[in-house]
């Protein structure tokens, strides 16, 4: 087997989907706290005023805020060497612009990190994971405003100083490229909007919307670069990485037009990586901006900042691959214009996500060949409907099969020469789906008793995959 000694096995969650305690101990409201529950057929709604008659999943989530010791003990039982989690910005700065942090918020995360260290679990901390303070949206139009850079840097400085002896691995922004993929206006960018459905994937974008997105992205690039530089000054031992929503893209046919389209669509993996790893915008952005009809404002010194704040490693999420084509009829037939055409050689999950383990090997090789930095797969997993059987157990063989095949392909990538150092499957304990706001789309090794309407005991139950993953970790990937 090819997993190196010291390979970091673990799992991943996000505060807005997992933590709860949304208004306790001085925490302010984030943009996600303004998003209702939903389903695939009935999308989540964003409401500027929180309506107590509506259900907002992030308010309680699965209550890690009160159950973190129990949950970390479960992770330790599986043998985690790393736990990827995020910090709720509004638990540290309720509005996002204060000078003085909320001490109770700092104390909570210190307790979480100390609990992890007690079991030998390394925290991998995402600084911003879809939880921009609502105040920054309402008063500043989110990341379209350059002032958010300084607010973010103040937040980072507090975290780096407070936890410099407890946290080694940091990620600046979660899935930073989602900001410009038509789904990030609210969660990623915090762009001010009216009450509206939160699902905008597939809707046409105006030049103004595109300009706002890429301007916000530029500001996040600068914030990330300055955070990397600041973190290294505070503790040279810090390892600070980027986090990109990854996916493999294949040409639907061998038509050269489809091949070129697939090449262009693969740039979703490269735009943010090039800026954060290489410290500069890639060659293709000049023509891309011209064809989109947009321009962004860069100030003197911005390009130097990007060069000075290059990340130490590249991390990404991977759930599926897709096929690109210029054939409009094929796109219409697929019903998935934005995400491309389904691959006839692959099966799909209950939510229509195509299952492609070999696509992970392909993507790892492409990314490592481009960047030559240590790689982390920090999200991967199967969203599925889990049911408790008469014996009181959850027999999720489908999840075991999904993860087994992806782990095999990670091993092949390591044999290929990829420096892969960590794997943290998504939603290691069941949490709220960010895309649909529902609970029934489950990813975890641990079942949480809660339904789409927020009902349930919140009791934790080990699934079959819990014991399987425990053996995988104990054997460093040998027992699959």
Automatic annotation (TrEMBL):
GO terms for biological process: carbohydrate catabolic process. InterPro entries: GH (IPR017853), GH_1_N_CS (IPR033132), Glyco_hydro_1 (IPR001360). Signal peptide: none annotated. This is 6-phospho-beta-glucosidase. Keywords: Glycosidase, Hydrolase. The keyword Hydrolase applies. PANTHER family: 6-PHOSPHO-BETA-GLUCOSIDASE, GLYCOSYL HYDROLASE. GO terms for molecular function: beta-glucosidase activity. Belongs to the glycosyl hydrolase 1 family. It holds the Pfam family Glyco_hydro_1. One of its GO terms (cellular component) is cytosol. It comes from Lacrimispora algidixylanolytica.
């Amino acid at each position: 087997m090819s997993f190196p000694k010291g390979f970091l096995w673990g799992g991943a969650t996000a505060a807005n989907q997992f933590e709860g305690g949304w208004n306790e101990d001085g925490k302010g409201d984030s943009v996600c706290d303004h998003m209702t529950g939903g389903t695939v057929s009935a999308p989540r709604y964003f409401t500027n005023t929180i309506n107590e008659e509506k259900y907002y999943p992030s308010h309680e989530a699965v209550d890690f805020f009160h159950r973190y010791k129990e949950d970390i003990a479960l992770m330790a039982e599986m043998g985690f060497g790393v736990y990827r989690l995020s910090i709720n910005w509004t638990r540290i700065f309720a509005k996002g612009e204060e000078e003085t942090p909320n001490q109770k918020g700092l104390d909570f995360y210190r307790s979480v990190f100390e609990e992890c260290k007690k079991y030998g679990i390394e925290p991998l901390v995402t600084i911003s994971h879809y939880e921009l303070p609502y105040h920054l949206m309402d008063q500043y139009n989110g990341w379209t405003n350059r002032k958010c850079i300084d607010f973010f840097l103040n937040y980072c400085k507090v975290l780096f100083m407070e936890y410099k002896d407890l946290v080694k691995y940091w990620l600046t922004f979660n899935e930073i490229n989602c900001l410009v993929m038509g789904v990030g206006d609210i969660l990623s960018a915090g762009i001010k909007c009216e009450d509206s459905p939160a699902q905008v994937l597939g809707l046409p974008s105006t030049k103004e919307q595109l300009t706002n997105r890429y301007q916000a992205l530029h500001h996040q690039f600068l914030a990330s670069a300055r955070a990397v530089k600041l973190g290294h000054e505070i503790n040279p031992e810090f390892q600070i990485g980027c986090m990109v929503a990854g996916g493999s893209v294949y040409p639907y046919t061998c038509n050269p037009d489809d091949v070129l389209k697939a090449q262009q669509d693969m740039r979703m993996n490269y735009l943010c990586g090039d800026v954060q790893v290489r410290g500069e915008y890639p060659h293709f952005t000049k023509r891309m901006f011209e064809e989109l009809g947009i321009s962004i404002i860069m100030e003197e010194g911005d390009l130097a900042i990007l060069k000075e704040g290059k990340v130490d490693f590249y991390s990404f999420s991977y759930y599926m691959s897709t096929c690109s084509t210029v054939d409009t009829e094929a796109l219409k037939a697929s019903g998935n214009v934005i995400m491309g055409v389904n691959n006839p050689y692959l099966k799909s999950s209950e939510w229509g996500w195509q299952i492609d383990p070999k696509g992970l090997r392909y993507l790892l090789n492409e990314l490592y060949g481009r960047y030559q930095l240590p790689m982390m797969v920090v999200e991967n997993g199967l969203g599925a409907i889990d049911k408790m059987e008469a014996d009181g157990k959850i027999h999720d063989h489908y999840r075991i099969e999904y993860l087994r095949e992806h782990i095999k392909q990670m091993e092949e990538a390591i044999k290929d020469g990829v420096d892969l150092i960590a794997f943290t499957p998504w939603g290691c304990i069941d949490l709220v789906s960010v895309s649909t706001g529902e609970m029934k789309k489950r990813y975890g090794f641990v079942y949480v008793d809660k339904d789409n309407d927020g009902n349930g005991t919140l009791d934790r139950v080990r699934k079959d995959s819990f014991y399987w993953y425990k053996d995988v970790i104990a054997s460093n990937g040998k027992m699959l």
